[in-house]
C-alpha cells in the first residue's frame, strides 16, 4: 500500500474533524479500515465508528420488559457457549465482539443470581418444614395431655386442620431447585463463577 503523503494526511484530519465515518474514510482514500485506524492513531486522532456501528448505536432503546419465564442454568450455560463459539468466527466487527462479550458477562451474572436465589428459597422451605414439625409436635403434646373427651376431640380437629393446611405439595421453588441440582451436575464451573463475584 502506498505511503501517506502530506495532502492526504491533511485531508484525513479534516474529514475526521467533520465527523466522517470509518466507512467513508476507507472509500475516499481507497484503504482498509486497519490502515485508516493505524494512521489515525499515529496522528493522535480518535478512530471514528463505522457507519454500521453509528446507525446501530443511535437507535433509541425500547423499554425492557420482564421475561415471562426463567431459563435454567443449563440453558444459560449453553447460550454462553454459543457466544464463545461465535467469538471464534471470522469477520466480526469490534461492536459485535463487544456485544457478545457483554452477553457472556450477563449470562454469568444470571447463573450466579439464579443459583443463589434457588438456594435461599430452598433454605426458607427447609425452615418452614422444621417449624411445621415443631408446631405439630406441640399440638400432639396437647392432645396427649387432654383430660376430657371434648378436649381430645378439639385437639384432634386442630391437628387434622393443621395437617391439611401444611400438606407438602411441590411449590415452584422446589421444582426449580430439583432442576438446578440435576442440571448443574453438567456445569462444573458454577462454584468457580460464584466465587469470582
Query: Structural class, from secondary structure content?
Result: mainly alpha
Work out the helix count.
Answer: 9
State Rg.
32 Å
Strand content: under 5%
Helix share bin: over 70%
Structure summary, number of beta strands: 0
Question: Which shape, going by the Cα principal axes?
Answer: rod-shaped
**Strand/helix succession:** HHHHHHHHH
Give unreliable regions as ranges: 180-197
Main β-sheet, in a few words?
Answer: none
Task: Describe the protein.
The protein is mainly alpha-helical and 197 residues long. Among the domains are: 1-50; 116-181. Helix content is 71%, strand content 0%. The protein contains nine helices and no strands. α6 packs antiparallel against α7. It is rod-shaped. The two termini are 47 Å apart. Residues 180-197 have low confidence and may be disordered.
Helix-strand layout with pairing:
Blueprint: H1 6-17, H2 22-29, H3 33-42, H4 51-57, H5 73-87, H6 94-145, H7 149-165, H8 172-183, H9 190-195
Concise overview:
The protein is built from nine helices and no strands. With 197 residues, it is mainly alpha-helical.
Key terms for this structure?
mainly alpha
